Amino acid sequence: MSAEATNPGAPLRKRGRPRIDLRRLGRVALLGPVSRDRLPDAIGHVAEAHRAHYPDADLAILRKAYVLAETSHRGQMRKSGEPYITHPLAVTLILAELGAETTTLTASLLHDTVEDTEVTLDQVRKEFGHEVCFLVDGVTKLEKVDYGAAAEPETFRKMLVATGNDVRVMSIKLADRLHNMRTLGVMRPEKQARIAKVTRDVLIPLAERLGVQALKTELEDLVFAILHPDEYERTQNLISAWDGAEDPLTEIADGVRATLREAGISAEVLIRPRHFVSVHRVRVKRGEMRGTDFGRLLVLVGEDADCYAVLGELHTCFTPVISEFKDFIATPKFNLYQSLHTAVVGPEGAVTEVLIRTHRMHKVAEAGVVALGNPYTQDGTNAAHQTEPADGERADPTRPGWLSRLLDWQESATDPDTFWATLRADLAQDREVTVFRTDGGTFGLPAGASCVDAAYAEYGDDAHGCIGARVNGRLATLSTVLHDGDTVQLLLAQDASSGPSPEWLDHTRTPAARIAITAWLDAHPDGVQGPSRSRTDAPRPQDRPADGVPDSRERPAGGAPTVAVDTPGAPVRLAGCCTPVPPDRIIGFTVRGGAVTVHREECPAVARMRAGGRAVVGARWNAPDDRSGTPDYRVTLVAESFGRPRLLADLTEAIATADAAIVSATVEPPTEQRVRHTYTLQLPDAAGLPVLMRAMRDVPGVYDVSRAQQPAAMG
Prior knowledge:
The chain has 715 residues and is an alpha+beta fold. The strands form six sheets. Strands 1, 2, 3, 4, 5 and 6 form a six-stranded mixed beta sheet that branches. It has a five-stranded mixed beta sheet with strand order 12-14-16-15-17, with helices on one face.
């Protein structure tokens, strides 16, 4: 595909296949159907391309569809002067070359019959089944509105909805647009420019997101020629100047083949020419072009492991450009693309980009969702006569997250202008990150998305009450930008009247979040008063120490528990900053006066003590039968919660139920509807600590309970 992509006027075809003369096919079509025992000559090219991907495909349904399309369109002509049947034939051939299955090709042949002829959907359903009818209907809905400033938004809204039900609808639409763009020269320049701009802003990004690179690259070149004719001509002249010259890529490709052959790796090494827009981008980026800039090497192997074997050999035998390495096999792109990208330095310092992938990866890289076959069958076979599930729902395993997001927010964008502007802005974001929920589920977000975007992606309008988040287990602000692999837990307020802040709009990247926040702010111009802390949330006087801070003083380690240290006779104290209890791992440090302070090993103070040169003293808990005196298991816990009435009462009741005594407690003033409680507690048995913490977490409104990690003075 890539070799032909350097010529924007060339139809998609395999290397070595003769160019198809659409005018000749049109003349053949006018002669009518041939005998029943063979395919019409006009569709023979489609059959040949289809059999290359599906050797056992039943071509009878294609013949039947062609006969109906040809007889229905007979007498109709395109503006280019060709018989109209040449258009569905060309669209179907494009899809056949990409590897579309029989059902898609059948629907492609018929995609204009219901719109432009006397054929009805009922007739299509009766003769070709529900699946073909579904696809034809989906594509037909996209053609009922002609282009124009007012019509475009609703046309593409219909396109998104139809694609959400079946991605093959978009496949047919993209191939249809490609053929129309190839023959756009017969239209007025202003209409060419208008269609080219819509193709650039919407259809090319959709082709990219669906992974149909073969269509995307040719569409880019055709748009480039229309919208930037001077730059296009300059690029064309640049490519022509290099044609016929000695190609340095040939020598490098031979070297790569020899290297892999010596390593015993079976691989196909191809030179992959860049298409026009790609050459233009390289020229703009680098200025003066080098011979290796006009193409890249493509290495095709059999198995995933072979890709990494090839990479290792190339990086061993050539000088790699490490900054150019990207692994899209371990982390595929959101459009299904998988490949290893690298660059090596060849003879005379020429840098050559190399793509390494399996044959299967290459097929998906070129054709995207088209290469996946029929998404409604397990093996990708023809499902033209497949019936709908009992509940009327269609489960599409190829429906990506970005498409689901588009379908969600388009329902909220009632204003066509808002929808149109938002659609183009969303499609312009060409990278995606995968974020994990705490339950193990995932959802995709555009690169640069924040916790605000994640909240609306997960909770919809309920995200209005979001007051914070935990990212990878740590509290984070809603403006925090999320990255690939982050785990996010969104924290929602209990008060249903809570609403978003206007500042949230500064941190959103997704249309769903922007539309929802804007709608709420428009409906509440004066905002709402956040939930105030009830008087019952205030700590009781007897629960608050005089200085208003948790009791962080060291306490003697007498009674139970007792700690043995490696400094006989030294006073031993348990650190109040981390309140160690059995069976915590502990460590001691000598402080002023010769006393030993015992900390939990993970206490932040331990690192500071070591850095300050404090002498480390071994420490361990005494055996239970060595203990004596009154139990004195003290621990400081921090409970983080949403503000609500009776929260403090419920927490203290949970603590009492767990048979723990409150030594001291503080409740900090609410911040963004969140409240932080700190308790120093005395337990009769250290084994009861997990039970106590679990009981506190079970209190409604409490979203986390943890051991305190307070700063400690280095006395």
